[in-house]
Amino acid sequence: MPLFGPPDADKLQANGDVGGLIKALGYEKDSGVRLAAATGLGLLGDPRAIRPLVAALSDSDEEVRTVASEALCRFGAPAVDSLIAALTDQQHHVRPSAASTLGQIGDHRAVEPLIAALSDPDEEVRKAAATALRKIGDSRAVDPLIGALKDPSEGVRMIAVEALGQTIDAPVVEPLIAALDDSNEGVRVRAADALGHIGDVRAIEPLIDSLKDGDSYVSGATIGALAGIGVPAVERLIAGLKSSDRSVRDGVGEALGQILDVGAVEPLIGALADDDWHVLLIAAEMLGKIGDRRAVEPLVALFRAQNEVQHVRKAVVEALGKIGDPRAVASLVEALTDGDGWQRKAASEALGRIGDARAVEPLIATLKDYWDVRKAAAEALVAIYQSGNLGPQDRALLLAQRGVISEGHLDEFPYGSHEDSGIGVDFPD
Fold this sequence. Notes:
By secondary structure, the protein is mainly alpha-helical. The chain has helices at residues 9-14, 18-24, 31-44, 50-55, 62-75, 80-86, 94-105, 111-117, 123-136, 142-148, 154-164, 173-179, 185-198, 204-210, 216-229, 234-240, 246-258, 265-271, 277-290, 296-305, 310-323, 329-335, 341-354, 360-365, 371-387, 392-399, 402-406.
């Protein structure tokens, strides 16, 4: 070490001078020197540096404390005893930094001392201890972390919830359900996330009830949690569609829309017999997204029975088109003459996806419909032509419409029936 001026920590490290770096770690005049010394001691890995580095956790400079913690992490197990002792240190910054470092090292010897630190009077220590226990993941911490759900610090409660959400095999579900009523929205969000991750069916009803929370972040987490539970939640989510609370109806509908699993098909088919049009709408939409052919006949039956709510009929038409089963063709052709233009458009698109020759003549008749409908019909006819499923007669009928389908549209008026030729859809050679 030079006689005058600050220590050259880089040179000391290059020379392997552990004693010099330890002295430099206490150089009060320049935090940069202390920072470089802590870095060097971590890289050299000499166990003589452990106690000085633990002492450096009380440094006034946050960056020095961080680098000292990182250096101790490099030592791993040999540093654990000194860090455990530091959990009861009276110096500011030492206890939380020691707890955090123990969490990074992940040695299970630290579990009991960290559990004791959950009762520290300093909020930062309790937060660091809870975080460390979450990282270590020892089952001994479960009950103490459940107790931490009543900590006065919302930060501690948030971390405790996150930690408990990782312990799937432990009896944490009921405490996490209780945390859905926490006064802090951050705790409630994390409780919903944790319950979704665990996937226990006991959480379904409390999560549905939590959709009334009013906080958008909580609602979003709750919807994600219900979707995460998946098929076991479907029947109760369907029942929730009939709630008198709009936020519940919207929330369960969104959650259902994310559960695209064939295991949900039978409960959804059962929902097609409901007398609530909102239930019918969501069930039809989901069955279309899942695309299971078991839903075709129940959807066709619903289409024929449901003549009052156009939204439901349109949803059924779209679902049948997504499933793409020829058994739906007759109903979809019928839908081409329905009074609702959006439904006729959806029926045209569905028939194009199915590609059945029986749709050719009805779609040709639809080429004089409103603009959006006739364009969808033209595109459907092109798709059927390209499918290669046409016999000579249907092929000839379709080719006779080539000019109408492919020529440019003559006016710019988008509504009303059209007698002029030209739709402007590319027709392949």
